[in-house]
Amino acid sequence: MPGFIAENTRFTEPSMCFPNLVDHNRVTLTKNNPCVRCEALDDDDNNPILPGLPDDVSKYCLALVPRSSFPAMGGVSKRWRCFIRSTEFITVRKLAGMVEEWLYMLTADCEGKGSHWEVMDCNGHNRRSLPLMTGPAKAGFGVVVLNGKLLVMAGYSSSNGGTASVSTEVYQYDSCLNSWSKLSDMNVARYDFACAEVNGLVYAVGGYGADGNSLSSAEVYDPDTNKWALIESLRRPRWGCFACGFEGKLYVMGGRSSFTIGHSKFVDVYDPEKHDWCEMKNGCVMVTAHAVLGKKLFCMEWKNQRKLAIFNPEDNSWKMVPVPLTGSSSIGFRFGILNGKLLLFSLEEEPSYRTLLYDPNAAPGSEWQTSDIKPSGLCLCTVTIKA
């Protein structure tokens, strides 16, 4: 890529990428957000969803259909398909008590040369793989769950000649229709950045840009308009960081900053109502895994990977919890959230390996257990989708 300065880049986790493959029979690409104007898609907009029934009753009936039939339902009519894509569909399923929780794991193959998404239910069953996403293999991308859908954002790809291209592309996986679609591009090409969902919006902050320099810029995605908008930048460039949402605010921590020596402990907090950033000095550094469970943040730092660091945003306090040797003596983990519990997937394969499970609501002394849930290969990242 012209102007790309390789020596200024810090490409990390090369195995965390998507294969450079396209299945044109299974991948669905659209230029616009499929949920913005549902009614515009259907030529028979005035016709009932189900003849003889009011639409509210018809929607409830569709929500009761088994999940495995959703892709077929999406082919019945444009109106059915748009309803299944909508947030209203998830709302109706919640009212009907039909919402299911699934764990999506980006898993490296046995040789570590490629990766794929695989899905498990709350018991670790029904393992299946997602359709392939279009485009070149990428690393350094961001992953967020929004309205029951998986968003994969930006990142970089490398060519055989050694040059790299930093992306602005955003793809969305619809877990109900089992298909990918393309959303609007971001304003700034970036990788190794922080991202999170807050109040139905997606934020992307910092990282590295197309020229390999660190970024302080931030932007927000609104699914109702399918547009990205730049917001106030961070006070300093920041990369290798992560983000999460608490009480309607965006927290950015970990990683490094060009204005600090070594790794940053500063926490940048963005208030969407005031449209500005404030700063805390009680964060964590060199975070290798993180997950939000309930109203708390769980982290693992590189310097001490046999302890959980638990952040309570109500009083900005941290609590350290030792990780038992039961199941795995590994010093490296990836986190997953399923059924209100924290899963710790070991980064080292051992003969007696069992996934560790931490239950924050268990009686004191019995918070730690083991689980049979585990990925088929090395776990690179996970997200939980309820839909």
Automatic annotation (TrEMBL):
InterPro entries: F-box-like_dom_sf, F-box_dom, Kelch-typ_b-propeller, Kelch_1. It holds the Pfam family Kelch_KLHDC2_KLHL20_DRC7. The keyword Repeat applies. Residues 51-89 form the F-box domain. Keywords: Kelch repeat, Repeat. Coiled coil: none annotated. Signal peptide: none annotated. PANTHER family: OS02G0202900 PROTEIN (PTHR46344), OS02G0504900 PROTEIN (PTHR46344:SF1). This is F-box domain-containing protein. It comes from Clitoria ternatea.
